[in-house]
Amino acid sequence: MTVEGMRIFRLLVLSLVLVSALIGCGKKPEKKVPSQEVIALAEKAAAGDAKALAVLRGRAEKGDAEAQASLGAMYFIGEGVPKDMAEAFKWFILASAEGDESAKKTARFIEKRITAEERAEGEKRAREFEERSKRSD
Questions:
Q1: N or C: which end of the chain has fewer CB within 10 A?
Q2: pLDDT digit string (tens) for 39-65?
Q3: How far is CA 104 from CA 2, 21, 54, 94, 97, in A?
Q4: Contact assessment for residue 13 and residue 70, using Cβ atoms and an 8 Å cutoff
Q5: Residue 25: which pLDDT band, with cuts at 50, 70 and 90?
Q6: Cβ neighbours, 10 Å, residue 42
Q7: What is the pLDDT of residues 70-85, one digit of tens each?
Q8: Alpha helices in 24-64 (DSSP H)
Q9: Which pTM value belongs to this model?
Q10: Any idea where the domains of the chain sit in the sequence?
Q11: Which is more confident, 70 or 32?
Q12: In angstroms, rounded to a whole number, what is the distance separating the alpha carbons of residues 50 and 88?
């Protein structure tokens, strides 16, 4: 990972976390992961730490909006995971559905910058994820 890429990634994650903390992400306190922990996981994952990525993804799959937004940022930038705009859009859609207002704004930002195909694929992936999550509950 380049120094510039890591700097941009940290700023993006930090801004997402700070805005989420200021406006609240709509989660019950017992389910919310401390922001510092999510940031640390995301930084390690972006640097190629497979275990950190697995933990971050696990939390995202359980509905942690901060982890979902962090994964979205990683896919958007392509740090620690392949760059994939549809996957980035998916994770920001899911974080938005959890009540993260910052993620909602980021999803709108991304939506304006991706192709119609990427948008449709991201929405499809988000729907499929939500359907799988409902079946496993």
A1: C
A2: 999 999 999 999 999 999 999 999 999
A3: 28, 14, 24, 9, 8
A4: yes
A5: very low
A6: 29
A7: 999 999 999 999 999 9
A8: 35-46, 50-61
A9: 0.76
A10: 3-136
A11: 70
A12: 18
Tracing tokens 């979902």 back to the chain, one arrives at: 68
Half-sphere exposure for 121 (CA within 13 Å, toward CB): 10
| Nearest alpha-carbon partner for 40 in 17, 64, 65 | 17
Overall average pLDDT of the 11-38 stretch: 53
CA 26 to chain centre: 15
Tokens representing residue 43 in the block:
């930084």
Residue type present at position 59: R
User: Who's near 79: CB < 8 A, 6+ residues apart?
Assistant: 1, 5, 6, 9, 46
CA distance 74 to 12: 9
* Type of residue found at 90: K
Residue whose pair of structure tokens reads 């919310």 in the numeric block: 32
Cβ 111 vs Cβ 90: under 8 Å: no
